[in-house]
Amino acid sequence: MVANSKNIEEVDKKTETICCDGGQDSLGHPAVYYTFGDKKEIICGYCNKKYIKKEVNGK
Predict the structure, then answer these.
(1) What residue spans define the domains of the chain?
(2) How large is the greatest C-alpha to C-alpha distance in the chain, in angstroms?
């Protein structure tokens, strides 16, 4: 599968929890919450959107 830049979102490196609802208003999916914990990326189980923590100065 080729990554689609519209399907990738960078979030602040301090973010611990994200919510994904498919981003298409009423055509999206149920809102789901994910916690990063020690992970640097999360992929939504519904829409495969990838959330990546931004790296600042290599940290």
Answers:
(1) 5-53
(2) 38
Residue 5, SS3 per DSSP: helix
pTM above 0.85, yes or no: no
CA 3, 5, 49, 54 torsion-angle sign = positive
CATH T-level assignment (fold) for domain 5-53: HSP40/DNAj peptide-binding domain (2.60.260)
pLDDT band, very low/low/confident/very high, at 5 (cuts 50, 70, 90) = low
Over the stretch 9-27, which tens digit does the pLDDT of each residue have?
Answer: 999 999 999 999 998 778 8
